[in-house]
């Protein structure tokens, strides 16, 4: 019973649940605020994403009456939120929190990270909107492009950790973090530098920001799969996005740069790392470049990130 309460707390309160949601919204707010300053604007308050979420909670959810599949239309965002709540509880915080093996390991986290993209595709299809259909096809193409490099990156990290610990491969994020605390972060291991580069390209695409916001491009397909959503249903997508930001950035820290402090200091260091990743890898990128076409993004991921990830895996196997 005690173990079940602990698991439920991890999913609903900390490090997932309420903590991940509030921190994810704060990251989104910091992104918008800093982006505005870089563009010479004042920008919104830091907690504007939270204010937007509260406002959506008081609005009506409109379901297209003739074209939408109502059950799928309303159920899709709920599935996305639940998947990210579980995923957030799988991300370790160095010196503060280690996920329970009963929740799953790195492989489970990989599967969960695919759910938001699938949810967007299902939502776009269920709405019956032609813009949703276009967003569906773009999201599917982009996922096929960036998931391959991520799998190779994870394989390289798992092999590097497993062989160093005396077994073939390790998909335990707890063991991956502990190994780096003892032997040094993979960020400073030349063998892993190509994998780091591949992940740097992956996470802006997974978070759906410029130049990889192609499925939801406002100026082209008017938010694509989200065009027909409103009220609490749209709010669930905002919650899913905020949670996914914490999961993806937290995964990057666990794979390549977990630091050793414990307790309050360890949590503070982790929060600062997350903020730096968000502002450098997301904010600066999206205000500096324009949106790619889907064919350009697809070719890009099958060229550079895939090459870097494959090179890192090959070097790990040889060394």
UniProtKB/TrEMBL annotation:
Gene Ontology MF terms: quinone binding
Membrane topology: Multi-pass membrane protein
Coiled coil segments of this chain: none
TM annotation in the entry: 6-27, 72-97, 103-123, 144-163, 191-212, 233-257, 263-285, 297-318
Gene Ontology cellular-component terms listed: plasma membrane
Keywords of this entry: Membrane, Quinone, Transmembrane, Transmembrane helix
UniProt key word Transmembrane: yes
Subcellular location: Membrane
Protein's name according to its UniProt entry: NADH-quinone oxidoreductase subunit H
Annotated organism of origin: Siculibacillus lacustris
């Amino acid at each position: 019973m005690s173990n079940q309460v602990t698991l439920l707390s991890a999913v609903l309160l900390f490090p997932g649940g309420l903590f991940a949601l509030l921190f994810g919204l704060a990251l989104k707010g910091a992104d918008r605020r800093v982006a505005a300053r870089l563009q010479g604007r004042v920008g919104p308050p830091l907690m504007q994403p939270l204010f937007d979420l509260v406002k959506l909670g008081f609005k009506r959810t409109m379901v297209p009456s003739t074209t939408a599949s109502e059950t799928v239309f309303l159920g899709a965002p709920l599935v996305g939120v639940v998947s990210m709540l579980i995923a957030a509880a799988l991300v370790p915080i160095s010196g503060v929190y280690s996920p329970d093996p009963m929740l799953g390991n790195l492989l489970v986290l990989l599967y969960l990270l695919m759910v938001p993209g699938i949810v967007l595709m299902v939502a776009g299809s269920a709405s019956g909107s032609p813009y949703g259909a276009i967003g569906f096809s773009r999201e599917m193409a982009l996922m096929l492009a960036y998931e391959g490099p991520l799998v190779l990156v994870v394989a390289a990290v798992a092999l590097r950790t497993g062989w160093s610990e005396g077994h073939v491969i390790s998909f335990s994020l707890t063991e991956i973090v502990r190994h780096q605390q003892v032997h040094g972060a993979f960020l400073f291991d030349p063998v892993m530098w190509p994998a780091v580069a591949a992940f740097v390209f992956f996470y802006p695409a997974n978070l759906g920001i410029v130049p990889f916001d192609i499925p939801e491009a406002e100026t082209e397909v008017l938010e694509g799969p989200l065009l027909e959503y409103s009220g609490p249903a749209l709010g669930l997508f905002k919650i899913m996005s905020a949670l996914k930001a914490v999961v993806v950035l937290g995964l990057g820290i666990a794979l390549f740069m977990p630091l050793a402090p414990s307790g309050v200091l360890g949590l503070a260091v982790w929060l600062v790392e997350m903020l730096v990743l968000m502002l450098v890898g997301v904010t600066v990128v999206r205000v500096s470049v324009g949106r790619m076409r889907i064919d350009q993004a697809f070719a890009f991921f099958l060229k550079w990130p895939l090459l870097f990830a494959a090179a890192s895996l090959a070097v790990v196997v040889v060394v």
